[in-house]
Amino acid sequence: MSDKIADATKLIQEFAACWNRHDMKAFASLFAADAEFVNVVGLWWKGREQIQQAHEFAHATFFRDSRLTIEKTEIRPVSESILIARCRWNLTGHTAEDGRPLPARSGILVNVLKTSNGECLIVDSQNTDIIEHQLSRPQ
Predict the structure, then answer these.
(1) Which of 7, 80, 116, 117 lies most in the core, judged by the most C-beta atoms within 10 Å?
(2) What's this model's pTM, rounded to 2 decimal places?
(3) What is the pLDDT, as a whole number, of residue 134?
(4) Is residue 90 part of a domain?
């Protein structure tokens, strides 16, 4: 199992490396052909092709100069072939639609990974922004 955890960790590192190179073809190759991805605003892409197209658009525009840093990754095996990778990330260098620089963001990315024949691929991904706020508590 330690080999599978190492493969999963390497995949998450490659996720960030592809992002930072803005190589969305390589990025999409990390996903299974029938993978699904829900982004931070709830857009739901189905299949590697949609995932690639959506990210190509984003990286040609508001993520063009962005930099993704993975801060912490935890891998949890669920079975012999399924693992859950949960990681905290930071994003800098992205812009608003009008080109204005935006402040750094952070979030949590959950990837369900499947290993088969020595290959590890993302089969499902959900990304969540961390929004800092204070909750009011009843007195």
Answers:
(1) 7
(2) 0.91
(3) 54
(4) yes
